[in-house]
Please model this.
Amino acid sequence: MKKLNIAIIGLGNIGSYLYNFLNKNKLILSKKNNCIPNVLYVSAKNKNRKRNVKINKKKWLKNYLDATKKKDVDLIIELIGGAEGAAKKLVFNALKNKKHVVTANKALIAKYGDQLSRIAEQNSVNLEFEASVCGGVPIIRSLKEGLIANKIKKIYGIFNGTSNYILSSMEKENKNFKDVLNNAKKLGYAEANPISDLNGNDVSSKLKILTSLCFNSFLNNNIHVEGISNIDKEDIINANLLGYKIKLLGCSELINNKIYQRVHPTLIKKSSYVAGIEGVLNAVITEGDPVGQSIIQGEGAGPQATTSALVSDICSILRGNIKFPFSISSKERKKLKFEDISERLFSAYFRFDVIDKPGVLSDITKIFSQNKVSVKRLIQNPRKNKAISSIVIITHNSKDRYLGKILKTVSSKKYILKKPKLIRIDSN
Ligand SMILES: NC(=O)c1ccc[n+]([C@@H]2O[C@H](COP(=O)([O-])OP(=O)(O)OC[C@H]3O[C@@H](n4cnc5c(N)ncnc54)[C@H](OP(=O)(O)O)[C@@H]3O)[C@@H](O)[C@H]2O)c1
Model:
Protein backbone atom coordinates (compact mmCIF):
# COMPACT_ATOMS: atom_id res chain seq x y z
CA MET A 1 0.00 0.00 0.00
CA LYS A 2 1.14 3.57 -0.74
CA LYS A 3 2.25 5.81 2.13
CA LEU A 4 1.72 9.50 2.72
CA ASN A 5 4.42 11.01 4.96
CA ILE A 6 3.12 13.62 7.38
CA ALA A 7 4.71 16.29 9.59
CA ILE A 8 2.54 17.68 12.43
CA ILE A 9 3.73 21.12 13.50
CA GLY A 10 2.15 22.34 16.73
CA LEU A 11 1.45 19.85 19.54
CA GLY A 12 -0.88 21.80 21.80
CA ASN A 13 -4.55 20.98 22.47
CA ILE A 14 -5.27 19.97 18.90
CA GLY A 15 -1.91 18.71 17.64
CA SER A 16 -1.36 16.24 20.48
CA TYR A 17 -4.92 14.86 20.22
CA LEU A 18 -4.55 14.46 16.45
CA TYR A 19 -1.18 12.68 16.87
CA ASN A 20 -2.73 10.10 19.23
CA PHE A 21 -5.79 9.70 17.01
CA LEU A 22 -3.75 9.02 13.87
CA ASN A 23 -1.65 6.47 15.76
CA LYS A 24 -4.68 4.61 17.08
CA ASN A 25 -6.62 4.69 13.81
CA LYS A 26 -3.81 4.19 11.29
CA LEU A 27 -5.04 0.77 10.15
CA ILE A 28 -8.69 1.67 9.54
CA LEU A 29 -7.75 4.95 7.84
CA SER A 30 -5.30 3.07 5.59
CA LYS A 31 -8.02 0.57 4.63
CA LYS A 32 -10.59 3.27 3.95
CA ASN A 33 -8.25 5.36 1.80
CA ASN A 34 -5.96 2.69 0.33
CA CYS A 35 -2.99 4.74 1.57
CA ILE A 36 -1.15 4.79 4.92
CA PRO A 37 -1.08 8.05 6.93
CA ASN A 38 2.47 7.93 8.27
CA VAL A 39 3.44 10.59 10.81
CA LEU A 40 7.15 10.95 10.15
CA TYR A 41 7.96 14.21 11.95
CA VAL A 42 6.60 16.52 14.60
CA SER A 43 7.65 19.87 15.98
CA ALA A 44 6.48 22.60 18.35
CA LYS A 45 8.06 25.55 20.12
CA ASN A 46 9.50 23.88 23.20
CA LYS A 47 10.79 20.32 22.87
CA ASN A 48 11.00 19.87 26.65
CA ARG A 49 7.43 20.79 27.44
CA LYS A 50 5.38 18.06 29.14
CA ARG A 51 2.71 16.76 26.75
CA ASN A 52 -0.13 14.23 26.67
CA VAL A 53 1.62 12.31 23.91
CA LYS A 54 4.54 9.95 23.82
CA ILE A 55 6.65 10.72 20.76
CA ASN A 56 9.78 8.93 19.59
CA LYS A 57 12.61 11.51 19.81
CA LYS A 58 13.71 10.62 16.28
CA LYS A 59 10.52 12.17 14.93
CA TRP A 60 11.22 15.58 16.50
CA LEU A 61 12.40 18.37 14.18
CA LYS A 62 14.54 20.96 15.96
CA ASN A 63 13.50 23.65 13.53
CA TYR A 64 9.83 23.38 12.54
CA LEU A 65 10.57 24.94 9.13
CA ASP A 66 12.75 21.93 8.22
CA ALA A 67 9.49 20.09 7.52
CA THR A 68 9.05 22.28 4.45
CA LYS A 69 12.49 21.31 3.08
CA LYS A 70 12.54 17.57 3.77
CA LYS A 71 12.16 15.55 0.57
CA ASP A 72 10.34 12.74 2.37
CA VAL A 73 7.49 14.96 3.66
CA ASP A 74 4.30 14.97 1.57
CA LEU A 75 1.87 16.72 3.92
CA ILE A 76 2.36 19.37 6.60
CA ILE A 77 -0.33 19.87 9.23
CA GLU A 78 -0.11 23.36 10.70
CA LEU A 79 -1.52 23.55 14.25
CA ILE A 80 0.33 26.56 15.63
CA GLY A 81 -2.34 29.25 15.13
CA GLY A 82 -2.35 32.99 14.40
CA ALA A 83 -2.39 34.87 11.11
CA GLU A 84 1.26 35.91 11.28
CA GLY A 85 4.60 34.60 12.54
CA ALA A 86 5.47 30.92 12.60
CA ALA A 87 2.17 29.66 11.16
CA LYS A 88 2.32 32.03 8.19
CA LYS A 89 5.96 31.19 7.44
CA LEU A 90 5.28 27.49 7.68
CA VAL A 91 2.25 27.42 5.37
CA PHE A 92 3.71 29.75 2.70
CA ASN A 93 6.99 27.80 2.62
CA ALA A 94 5.26 24.42 2.61
CA LEU A 95 3.08 25.28 -0.39
CA LYS A 96 5.99 26.89 -2.26
CA ASN A 97 7.94 23.66 -1.71
CA LYS A 98 5.06 21.60 -3.10
CA LYS A 99 3.89 20.07 0.17
CA HIS A 100 0.18 19.53 0.80
CA VAL A 101 -1.10 21.56 3.76
CA VAL A 102 -3.89 20.94 6.25
CA THR A 103 -4.61 23.68 8.77
CA ALA A 104 -7.17 24.56 11.47
CA ASN A 105 -6.11 28.21 11.37
CA LYS A 106 -9.08 30.47 10.51
CA ALA A 107 -7.11 33.66 11.16
CA LEU A 108 -4.47 32.70 8.59
CA ILE A 109 -6.94 31.54 5.94
CA ALA A 110 -9.25 34.55 6.40
CA LYS A 111 -6.26 36.88 5.90
CA TYR A 112 -3.99 35.10 3.40
CA GLY A 113 -6.28 32.44 1.91
CA ASP A 114 -6.36 34.06 -1.56
CA GLN A 115 -2.56 34.20 -1.86
CA LEU A 116 -2.13 30.74 -0.38
CA SER A 117 -4.68 29.13 -2.67
CA ARG A 118 -2.94 30.58 -5.75
CA ILE A 119 0.37 29.01 -4.69
CA ALA A 120 -1.34 25.68 -3.94
CA GLU A 121 -3.00 25.67 -7.36
CA GLN A 122 0.22 26.59 -9.19
CA ASN A 123 2.02 23.71 -7.47
CA SER A 124 -0.85 21.19 -7.73
CA VAL A 125 -0.98 20.54 -4.00
CA ASN A 126 -3.88 20.64 -1.55
CA LEU A 127 -4.58 23.40 0.91
CA GLU A 128 -7.35 22.12 3.18
CA PHE A 129 -8.94 24.01 6.08
CA GLU A 130 -12.15 22.23 7.13
CA ALA A 131 -11.14 22.52 10.80
CA SER A 132 -10.82 26.29 10.59
CA VAL A 133 -14.62 26.78 10.48
CA CYS A 134 -16.95 25.34 13.13
CA GLY A 135 -14.79 22.38 14.21
CA GLY A 136 -16.74 19.17 13.74
CA VAL A 137 -19.40 20.68 11.46
CA PRO A 138 -18.28 19.58 7.97
CA ILE A 139 -19.52 22.70 6.21
CA ILE A 140 -16.53 23.30 3.91
CA ARG A 141 -16.56 19.80 2.45
CA SER A 142 -20.35 20.05 2.12
CA LEU A 143 -20.04 23.26 0.11
CA LYS A 144 -17.18 21.90 -2.02
CA GLU A 145 -18.67 18.46 -2.65
CA GLY A 146 -22.12 17.56 -1.31
CA LEU A 147 -23.74 20.88 -2.25
CA ILE A 148 -21.61 21.53 -5.37
CA ALA A 149 -24.70 21.56 -7.61
CA ASN A 150 -26.19 24.55 -5.86
CA LYS A 151 -26.23 28.27 -6.31
CA ILE A 152 -26.01 29.42 -2.69
CA LYS A 153 -28.05 32.51 -1.84
CA LYS A 154 -27.49 32.67 1.88
CA ILE A 155 -25.42 31.09 4.63
CA TYR A 156 -25.92 31.84 8.28
CA GLY A 157 -25.84 30.39 11.72
CA ILE A 158 -24.06 30.09 15.03
CA PHE A 159 -20.32 29.83 14.45
CA ASN A 160 -18.93 30.43 17.94
CA GLY A 161 -19.55 28.00 20.80
CA THR A 162 -18.22 30.26 23.58
CA SER A 163 -20.58 33.15 22.85
CA ASN A 164 -23.49 30.77 22.33
CA TYR A 165 -22.74 29.11 25.66
CA ILE A 166 -22.71 32.51 27.38
CA LEU A 167 -25.99 33.71 25.84
CA SER A 168 -27.72 30.35 26.53
CA SER A 169 -26.53 30.33 30.16
CA MET A 170 -27.55 33.96 30.75
CA GLU A 171 -31.05 32.96 29.70
CA LYS A 172 -31.28 29.64 31.52
CA GLU A 173 -29.61 30.72 34.76
CA ASN A 174 -30.93 34.30 34.74
CA LYS A 175 -27.39 35.59 35.31
CA ASN A 176 -25.31 38.57 34.21
CA PHE A 177 -22.79 38.46 31.37
CA LYS A 178 -19.79 38.72 33.72
CA ASP A 179 -20.92 35.92 36.06
CA VAL A 180 -21.58 33.56 33.17
CA LEU A 181 -18.26 34.42 31.52
CA ASN A 182 -16.34 33.65 34.72
CA ASN A 183 -18.13 30.32 35.00
CA ALA A 184 -17.43 29.55 31.33
CA LYS A 185 -13.71 30.12 31.96
CA LYS A 186 -13.79 27.75 34.97
CA LEU A 187 -15.52 25.06 32.91
CA GLY A 188 -13.09 25.46 30.00
CA TYR A 189 -15.74 26.80 27.59
CA ALA A 190 -13.99 30.17 27.35
CA GLU A 191 -10.26 30.82 27.03
CA ALA A 192 -8.40 32.94 29.60
CA ASN A 193 -8.48 35.71 27.00
CA PRO A 194 -11.77 35.18 25.16
CA ILE A 195 -11.80 38.57 23.43
CA SER A 196 -12.04 37.33 19.83
CA ASP A 197 -14.91 34.98 20.80
CA LEU A 198 -16.82 37.82 22.43
CA ASN A 199 -16.17 40.71 20.03
CA GLY A 200 -17.31 38.82 16.94
CA ASN A 201 -13.85 38.58 15.31
CA ASP A 202 -13.73 34.79 15.49
CA VAL A 203 -17.09 34.55 13.68
CA SER A 204 -15.95 37.22 11.22
CA SER A 205 -12.92 35.13 10.10
CA LYS A 206 -15.10 32.04 9.68
CA LEU A 207 -17.78 33.93 7.79
CA LYS A 208 -15.28 35.46 5.34
CA ILE A 209 -14.08 31.95 4.47
CA LEU A 210 -17.63 30.62 4.04
CA THR A 211 -18.67 33.62 1.94
CA SER A 212 -15.84 32.98 -0.54
CA LEU A 213 -16.83 29.33 -0.83
CA CYS A 214 -20.54 30.07 -1.26
CA PHE A 215 -20.29 32.87 -3.82
CA ASN A 216 -17.04 31.94 -5.64
CA SER A 217 -15.64 35.29 -4.61
CA PHE A 218 -12.33 36.43 -3.16
CA LEU A 219 -12.07 37.01 0.59
CA ASN A 220 -13.53 40.39 1.43
CA ASN A 221 -13.09 42.58 4.50
CA ASN A 222 -16.31 44.51 4.02
CA ILE A 223 -18.10 42.95 6.97
CA HIS A 224 -20.19 44.42 9.78
CA VAL A 225 -19.01 43.01 13.12
CA GLU A 226 -20.51 43.38 16.60
CA GLY A 227 -19.95 41.11 19.60
CA ILE A 228 -22.01 40.13 22.62
CA SER A 229 -20.31 42.03 25.46
CA ASN A 230 -23.03 44.67 25.30
CA ILE A 231 -25.91 42.25 25.90
CA ASP A 232 -27.25 42.19 29.41
CA LYS A 233 -29.75 40.17 31.41
CA GLU A 234 -32.51 42.75 30.79
CA ASP A 235 -32.25 42.28 27.02
CA ILE A 236 -32.48 38.50 27.36
CA ILE A 237 -35.55 38.81 29.61
CA ASN A 238 -37.21 41.37 27.29
CA ALA A 239 -36.50 39.21 24.24
CA ASN A 240 -38.07 36.27 26.02
CA LEU A 241 -41.21 38.28 26.86
CA LEU A 242 -41.50 39.24 23.19
CA GLY A 243 -41.10 35.63 21.95
CA TYR A 244 -37.45 35.81 20.91
CA LYS A 245 -34.00 34.55 21.89
CA ILE A 246 -30.76 36.45 21.39
CA LYS A 247 -28.04 34.69 19.39
CA LEU A 248 -24.75 35.84 17.90
CA LEU A 249 -25.35 35.13 14.21
CA GLY A 250 -22.98 35.26 11.27
CA CYS A 251 -24.76 35.81 7.95
CA SER A 252 -23.76 36.24 4.30
CA GLU A 253 -26.43 36.76 1.70
CA LEU A 254 -26.71 37.65 -1.94
CA ILE A 255 -29.39 40.31 -2.54
CA ASN A 256 -29.73 41.91 -6.00
CA ASN A 257 -26.18 40.87 -6.97
CA LYS A 258 -24.69 42.43 -3.85
CA ILE A 259 -23.22 40.52 -0.94
CA TYR A 260 -23.87 41.53 2.66
CA GLN A 261 -21.59 40.02 5.34
CA ARG A 262 -22.56 40.64 8.94
CA VAL A 263 -21.93 39.36 12.45
CA HIS A 264 -24.07 40.71 15.29
CA PRO A 265 -26.35 39.68 18.13
CA THR A 266 -29.78 38.99 16.69
CA LEU A 267 -33.27 38.50 18.07
CA ILE A 268 -34.64 35.31 16.57
CA LYS A 269 -38.05 33.73 17.02
CA LYS A 270 -38.09 31.10 19.75
CA SER A 271 -39.74 28.70 17.32
CA SER A 272 -36.89 28.93 14.77
CA TYR A 273 -34.33 26.17 14.33
CA VAL A 274 -31.37 28.37 15.32
CA ALA A 275 -33.07 29.36 18.60
CA GLY A 276 -32.86 25.72 19.67
CA ILE A 277 -29.06 25.57 19.28
CA GLU A 278 -27.88 25.81 22.86
CA GLY A 279 -24.59 25.76 24.75
CA VAL A 280 -21.34 25.24 22.87
CA LEU A 281 -23.01 23.82 19.76
CA ASN A 282 -22.62 25.39 16.31
CA ALA A 283 -25.10 25.25 13.43
CA VAL A 284 -24.73 26.30 9.81
CA ILE A 285 -27.75 26.83 7.57
CA THR A 286 -27.42 27.20 3.81
CA GLU A 287 -30.07 28.17 1.31
CA GLY A 288 -29.31 26.94 -2.17
CA ASP A 289 -30.92 26.37 -5.50
CA PRO A 290 -32.09 23.66 -6.19
CA VAL A 291 -31.57 22.00 -2.78
CA GLY A 292 -33.46 24.54 -0.63
CA GLN A 293 -32.51 24.81 2.99
CA SER A 294 -29.95 22.49 4.53
CA ILE A 295 -28.63 22.45 8.07
CA ILE A 296 -25.60 20.95 9.77
CA GLN A 297 -25.06 21.19 13.49
CA GLY A 298 -22.44 19.89 15.88
CA GLU A 299 -19.60 20.63 18.26
CA GLY A 300 -17.80 23.73 17.07
CA ALA A 301 -14.47 23.37 18.88
CA GLY A 302 -12.35 21.20 21.13
CA PRO A 303 -9.78 18.56 20.23
CA GLN A 304 -12.29 15.83 19.34
CA ALA A 305 -14.46 17.84 16.93
CA THR A 306 -11.45 19.59 15.40
CA THR A 307 -9.65 16.29 14.88
CA SER A 308 -12.72 14.93 13.10
CA ALA A 309 -12.42 17.81 10.60
CA LEU A 310 -8.63 17.50 10.27
CA VAL A 311 -8.87 13.77 9.56
CA SER A 312 -11.47 14.41 6.89
CA ASP A 313 -8.96 16.75 5.17
CA ILE A 314 -6.11 14.28 5.61
CA CYS A 315 -8.23 11.48 4.07
CA SER A 316 -9.05 13.66 1.08
CA ILE A 317 -5.29 13.96 0.45
CA LEU A 318 -4.68 10.25 1.11
CA ARG A 319 -7.15 9.53 -1.69
CA GLY A 320 -5.32 11.93 -4.01
CA ASN A 321 -8.34 14.18 -4.21
CA ILE A 322 -6.60 17.37 -5.32
CA LYS A 323 -9.02 20.26 -5.46
CA PHE A 324 -9.06 24.01 -5.69
CA PRO A 325 -8.83 25.22 -2.07
CA PHE A 326 -11.81 27.56 -2.52
CA SER A 327 -13.76 25.11 -4.68
CA ILE A 328 -13.05 26.94 -7.94
CA SER A 329 -9.82 28.02 -9.64
CA SER A 330 -8.43 31.38 -8.46
CA LYS A 331 -8.63 32.51 -12.08
CA GLU A 332 -12.39 31.94 -11.99
CA ARG A 333 -13.08 33.47 -8.59
CA LYS A 334 -15.02 36.70 -8.87
CA LYS A 335 -14.59 40.20 -7.54
CA LEU A 336 -18.20 40.64 -6.42
CA LYS A 337 -19.72 43.79 -5.01
CA PHE A 338 -19.83 43.73 -1.21
CA GLU A 339 -22.17 46.29 0.35
CA ASP A 340 -22.07 47.53 3.90
CA ILE A 341 -25.34 47.03 5.72
CA SER A 342 -26.34 50.70 6.04
CA GLU A 343 -28.86 50.43 3.17
CA ARG A 344 -30.17 47.00 4.17
CA LEU A 345 -33.57 46.81 5.83
CA PHE A 346 -33.97 45.42 9.34
CA SER A 347 -36.62 45.47 11.96
CA ALA A 348 -34.99 46.17 15.32
CA TYR A 349 -35.28 46.09 19.09
CA PHE A 350 -34.33 49.25 21.02
CA ARG A 351 -34.01 49.57 24.78
CA PHE A 352 -33.76 52.93 26.48
CA ASP A 353 -33.25 53.19 30.25
CA VAL A 354 -34.43 56.70 31.09
CA ILE A 355 -35.26 59.11 33.86
CA ASP A 356 -38.96 58.75 34.62
CA LYS A 357 -40.33 62.20 33.77
CA PRO A 358 -42.95 63.68 31.43
CA GLY A 359 -41.92 64.38 27.83
CA VAL A 360 -39.26 61.65 27.54
CA LEU A 361 -41.40 59.15 25.68
CA SER A 362 -42.72 61.74 23.23
CA ASP A 363 -39.17 63.01 22.58
CA ILE A 364 -38.00 59.48 21.77
CA THR A 365 -40.93 58.72 19.45
CA LYS A 366 -40.34 62.07 17.71
CA ILE A 367 -36.75 61.02 16.94
CA PHE A 368 -38.08 57.79 15.43
CA SER A 369 -40.48 59.65 13.14
CA GLN A 370 -37.80 62.20 12.15
CA ASN A 371 -35.73 59.24 10.93
CA LYS A 372 -38.67 57.71 9.08
CA VAL A 373 -38.66 54.63 11.30
CA SER A 374 -42.12 53.41 12.22
CA VAL A 375 -42.80 51.77 15.56
CA LYS A 376 -44.39 48.34 15.57
CA ARG A 377 -44.54 47.84 19.34
CA LEU A 378 -43.71 50.02 22.31
CA ILE A 379 -43.55 48.68 25.83
CA GLN A 380 -42.90 50.88 28.81
CA ASN A 381 -41.36 49.18 31.83
CA PRO A 382 -41.62 45.62 30.54
CA ARG A 383 -40.58 44.53 34.06
CA LYS A 384 -42.86 46.46 36.36
CA ASN A 385 -40.91 45.78 39.55
CA LYS A 386 -37.72 47.51 38.27
CA ALA A 387 -36.71 50.87 39.69
CA ILE A 388 -35.39 52.22 36.37
CA SER A 389 -37.88 53.32 33.76
CA SER A 390 -37.25 51.31 30.64
CA ILE A 391 -38.69 51.77 27.15
CA VAL A 392 -38.56 48.93 24.65
CA ILE A 393 -39.40 49.64 21.02
CA ILE A 394 -39.75 47.17 18.17
CA THR A 395 -39.59 48.80 14.75
CA HIS A 396 -40.91 47.91 11.33
CA ASN A 397 -38.32 47.27 8.59
CA SER A 398 -36.07 50.32 8.19
CA LYS A 399 -32.71 51.11 6.65
CA ASP A 400 -29.90 50.24 9.05
CA ARG A 401 -28.39 53.71 8.81
CA TYR A 402 -31.62 55.26 10.18
CA LEU A 403 -31.64 52.79 13.05
CA GLY A 404 -28.05 53.78 13.81
CA LYS A 405 -28.94 57.47 13.67
CA ILE A 406 -31.72 57.01 16.22
CA LEU A 407 -29.34 55.22 18.56
CA LYS A 408 -26.80 58.03 18.26
CA THR A 409 -29.32 60.83 18.75
CA VAL A 410 -31.08 59.29 21.75
CA SER A 411 -27.74 58.33 23.35
CA SER A 412 -26.81 62.00 23.65
CA LYS A 413 -29.98 62.97 25.57
CA LYS A 414 -29.71 63.97 29.22
CA TYR A 415 -32.60 61.73 30.26
CA ILE A 416 -30.67 58.59 29.24
CA LEU A 417 -29.36 56.61 32.25
CA LYS A 418 -27.55 53.79 30.48
CA LYS A 419 -26.10 53.24 27.00
CA PRO A 420 -29.14 52.45 24.79
CA LYS A 421 -29.39 49.14 22.96
CA LEU A 422 -30.08 48.32 19.33
CA ILE A 423 -30.40 44.66 18.40
CA ARG A 424 -31.47 43.68 14.89
CA ILE A 425 -34.28 41.18 14.47
CA ASP A 426 -33.96 38.18 12.20
CA SER A 427 -36.56 38.14 9.44
CA ASN A 428 -36.50 34.39 8.75
N1 LIG B 1 -8.60 24.60 20.46
C1 LIG B 1 -9.68 24.48 19.69
O1 LIG B 1 -10.76 24.07 20.15
C2 LIG B 1 -9.58 24.79 18.23
C3 LIG B 1 -10.72 24.57 17.40
C4 LIG B 1 -10.63 24.83 16.03
C5 LIG B 1 -9.44 25.31 15.52
N2 LIG B 1 -8.36 25.53 16.35
C6 LIG B 1 -7.14 26.04 15.76
O2 LIG B 1 -6.12 25.04 15.87
C7 LIG B 1 -4.84 25.67 15.96
C8 LIG B 1 -4.10 25.14 17.21
O3 LIG B 1 -4.89 25.42 18.35
P1 LIG B 1 -4.52 24.82 19.80
O4 LIG B 1 -5.72 25.07 20.65
O5 LIG B 1 -3.98 23.44 19.68
O6 LIG B 1 -3.36 25.81 20.23
P2 LIG B 1 -2.23 25.59 21.38
O7 LIG B 1 -2.72 24.60 22.37
O8 LIG B 1 -1.85 26.94 21.85
O9 LIG B 1 -1.01 24.93 20.60
C9 LIG B 1 -0.16 25.65 19.75
C10 LIG B 1 1.04 24.83 19.41
O10 LIG B 1 1.87 25.59 18.53
C11 LIG B 1 3.22 25.51 18.98
N3 LIG B 1 3.94 26.74 18.61
C12 LIG B 1 3.69 28.00 19.03
N4 LIG B 1 4.59 28.85 18.49
C13 LIG B 1 5.41 28.11 17.73
C14 LIG B 1 6.56 28.40 16.96
N5 LIG B 1 7.04 29.64 16.88
N6 LIG B 1 7.16 27.38 16.32
C15 LIG B 1 6.70 26.12 16.41
N7 LIG B 1 5.63 25.76 17.16
C16 LIG B 1 5.01 26.76 17.80
C17 LIG B 1 3.13 25.38 20.48
O11 LIG B 1 4.35 24.81 20.96
P3 LIG B 1 4.61 24.41 22.51
O12 LIG B 1 3.63 23.31 22.78
O13 LIG B 1 6.00 23.98 22.57
O14 LIG B 1 4.30 25.66 23.28
C18 LIG B 1 1.91 24.46 20.62
O15 LIG B 1 2.30 23.12 20.55
C19 LIG B 1 -5.13 27.18 15.98
O16 LIG B 1 -5.02 27.70 14.68
C20 LIG B 1 -6.58 27.26 16.45
O17 LIG B 1 -7.23 28.44 16.01
C21 LIG B 1 -8.41 25.26 17.67
Summary: The mean pLDDT is 94. The domain at 139-299 is CATH 3.30.360.10 (Dihydrodipicolinate Reductase; domain 2).
